[in-house]
Amino acid sequence: MGRKRPSLRNYLTEGDDARDLDILDVPPPVELPSEDMTETLLELCPSKRLSSSEWAVVVRCALLKFEEREPTVDLLTGLFRSDDRESVLSSVEALIDRNVLSLEEGVLSVADTSLWLACDGGESKGTSEEGGRVNIDPMDILNEGDRSLWAPMLRAVLPLPLVLSEVKKRFDEADPVLTQFFVLRKVEERLVPVTRASQIRPPIKAMLIWSEGEGADFYLDF
User: Which fold has domain 35-110?
Assistant: First the structure.
């Protein structure tokens, strides 16, 4: 009579190849968010509707804060799949425009829900009654070199609230021969010429648009 073939279970638990392995009878526990974390995330869910991709960005920012990590734009986009990078950047821009996220010195934060604007648009923060312009001197934002160059054209200009989606649309529709775009990433840094729409992305403190025959416009993130 032939020898009885050992069972697969016995081979895996007692065989030479498995002798030094620890067999897990109970799976490791799943680490769930704390009660405080759960309550805080739920408080970030007002009635105003956000898309699923926008919610993914908001929740990811909140979780990074809980982990005591600063959610910069580069860090945030690196946590999503590479083919989702453009979608994440678009969501970040839209959320900043609607005051869902704030960007200070390169770090993203989830704003208080009382500041969130409806998805169909609304007034930007810091606007005045004069056509949405704000009484701030652009000369206080620019560095010394750009200040002396642009002073004749900007001295009498009041900044407009910076809405990236609107500036991008204006860039796409502008005549590149007659209109020039410049971006200011941080206060008193150099103005950088914009040659493609992908450059219009956070972090941005201000945008300068100069059109031949029409003068200059200055957009500021308040």
Answer: Arc Repressor Mutant, subunit A (1.10.10)
